[in-house]
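Provenance

Sequences were taken from public entries as deposited. Structures were produced by running a predictor on each sequence independently, with no templates supplied. The record for SGNH hydrolase-type esterase domain-containing protein from Kribbella rubisoli is shown for reference.
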Amino acid sequence: MRQLKPNRRQIFTVGAAAAVTVAVSTETASATPAPIFATTSTTTGPYGSGVLGSWANGTRAISTTEQIHRVLDTDGVYMFGDSISVQDGKSLATRLLGRDGSQMAVNNWSSRPTSGAVDALQQWATAYGLPRRILMASGSNDIFDPPKFAAQLDRAMSIAGRNRIVYWVNIQAVRKSVGATMQLADQRNSSWLNMQMYDAQEKYSNLRIIRWAEWLWVKPYRLLNYLRDGVHPSVPLGQDARNELIVQSLTAR
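Predicted structure for SGNH hydrolase-type esterase domain-containing protein:
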């Protein structure tokens, strides 16, 4: 069943008020993955949230070739994400394996915008091929340049093709580390990105949106208790909640 597209006015109003073992070949260890970041705390950039700095040396977790082939052989899931996924990916893979036996291969990279995640999707599609299910957990770092997001959605859907299902976790990113004006911009830009997802869903019947943002907004206390810094889920409370939403979507029939 297609999900209903939320009312745009409601998104902005509510959003502003809310102001398995994964085999890894390359992983920079970090107990607390680096958050999304701006180049300086005083630069608001063209959209109010700042300017994304270099993510080349960000913390990352990328599955081995053996794990990728295992996923393809067993009808598992590819995951492409950012620092939230670096933090939560292993727990998610374990939960999914326990739920329906699905294996997961991950390509998660802190501070990476969606353009980089889609580049990785293209690389894996070319090098290995794609499974039936693809999980995109990317977008938090796109609050710095929201207009570019829609094109990346289109790229991802084109790479996946019509015969695969793309699951996309939507965005709630309001950093506690910045001032009130920039926080308001973060919320506005998060909602802007989410609306682009809903617009894309009108075009692509195989796009499934996992509504993390709405789940948080329904009960405002969740924004405090389930996010540790306004972006990353708290552990284990927020991590378990977000991962459960994802697993429910991936295993729905």
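Residues 60-251 form a domain with the Rossmann fold fold (CATH 3.40.50.1110).
DSSP finds nine helices and seven strands in the chain.
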